[in-house]
Amino acid sequence: MTDNIAFKDVKGLKAMLSAGHITPAELISVFAERIDQHNELSKAFITPTIEAAKEHAANMSREDLEISPFAGVPYASKDLFDVKGVLTTAGSRVFHDRVAKTDAYAVAKLRAAQAISLGKTNLHEFAYGATGENEVYGTCVNAYDPTRLAGGSSSGSAAAVAFGLVPAALGTDTGGSVRAPAALNGLVGLKPTIGRVPTSGVVPYCWTLDHVGLMTRTVEDCADLLGIVAGYDPVDSASVNRPVDHYGEVLGRDIGGLRIGIPRNFYYERTDDEILAALERVQEFVAAAGAKLVPVTFPDMEHSRTVSLTLQMPEALSAHSAYVQERGELYGADFRAGLALGQCILAEHYVKAKRFVEVYRQETNKLFDEVDLILTPATPEIAQKVGTVTVTRNGVNEAIGNAITRFTTFFNMTGHPALTMPCAMHTEGLPIGLQLVGRYFDEKTVLQAAHAIERSGRFSIPLPSFGS
């Protein structure tokens, strides 16, 4: 019974709550028990807030349950998000005493929607890294194989949902830190258009590239969650003041007539053969459903990762300058090395990187004159073993973090909405994911296509055996 509830999607949990089959308090108790049972293995949570969640649930009225699709349902947030009265560690010793005075924008919106926060999830320290390895709070593992990485930097949010500790979670995505771990753990991960979900109240890593992202079990849950947290906050200079769409209204529509771009370059190169085969099956499905496959060519991607890092490290150094002065010895070796790299990047390099980003945005926007969506693999590799340093594909050695985010990083620079979702299981027993990318602020079409793929039933994957 407990496992059956824990792995339900939000829509299913809401149906149980609405029918009176379970109360919010009972639902919180189910997930609290799951956290107690599985957090030691998963390392998903840094700070569970069970008692506060129980109090919130106990005080909910029937009217409260009708406020939103997430009312009465628990969620978790990456420990970069401020939750009033709760420690925000950012996965680091540096913030061992940083108790939030207010809620982050997204958390405040969820609180108003009567969603119930179950706590703060683990991450790569200060979001610097794609493996999720953390020397302070432990390394999150993959629910399909705990000898494998969950991916990062939103590792705890992915592990929390994949292990059935919460049905949905917030993360941040600067180079793929929501989409990649979601793909590696068989979840739906969405990075909305930059500025669609304000980052106020979220510990910054790189202002130019930071996005708030979402992880859920299903596309419909993702659409509902986006409808709650999207909005405008003048405190966030990147936030965009435009109406929030009704994202769920397009779910269930067919995809006939949609033009789906298939990249000729970069996105299908140096990729696991089984991942390529899975994407070919997806292409065949969308074409049979009436979509038109259109070859597209991306701008030269040779220097794209260098451009991203040239933005990330000086901005991270700027964000941490005061803490480095006061608490430098508390930083982990990994992040200290990144900050040292930031000191070596000249203003000239930073400005050139900014200009590259503008070119990437312009050239990618031109592609959407030809297509409505772009389809790529989510990652070129499945989840790798904990402790993996490099992977080799087609004779090319690549750092594991670079491999995990090779297909996601570019869209943080362009800012386009991008979603990853499961589409197959690898013979090694691990999820394979696809990525759909859309026009600015056209999350509706991304979600429409993702839902069509999901509801076909042809690309569903089993629940993980660990934790169930």
Automatic annotation (TrEMBL):
State the superkingdom: Bacteria
Q: Which Gene3D superfamilies match?
A: Amidase signature (AS) domain
GO terms for molecular function, please? catalytic activity
- What Pfam family is a match for this entry? Amidase
Task: Indicate the segments annotated as coiled coil, or none if absent.
Answer: none
Domain (Amidase): give its ranges.
26-447
The family note in this entry says: Belongs to the amidase family.
Q: Which function does this protein serve?
A: Hydrolyzes indole-3-acetamide (IAM) into indole-3-acetic acid (IAA).
Kindly provide the name given to this protein in its UniProt entry: Indoleacetamide hydrolase
Organism of origin is: Rhizobium loti
